[in-house]
Specification:
3 helices
Length: about 90
């Protein structure tokens, strides 16, 4: 445990930020699972809608430094490939 006052405050802040970041990551994880399920069940419309929500939350996470910019770009790229493949398979 920290002894100095500033170190105690830094620990409190770190705990708060960790909780907030974990909530964001859990939400993203839930959306990723939902998109994966929609793609597996070949539901193009629902997959596309959930993908839009996922992209929005990923962008927000990158903006708030919860996830790295390149990580978000990689996830979005892979997601777009899968959704587009599903849409083109429907045609």
């Amino acid at each position: 445990m920290p002894i100095k006052k500033a170190a105690m405050k830094a620990l409190r802040q770190a705990k708060k930020r960790t909780l907030r970041n974990q909530k964001v990551k859990d939400g993203i994880h839930f959306l990723r699972r939902s998109v994966r399920k929609a793609i597996e069940s070949k539901e193009a419309k629902s997959a596309e809608e959930i993908a839009k929500a996922l992209i929005k939350s990923l962008d927000k996470a990158a903006q708030n430094s919860v996830l790295k910019k390149n990580t978000v770009a990689r996830l979005k790229s892979r997601l777009a490939k899968k959704v587009n493949a599903l849409k083109s398979a429907k045609k």
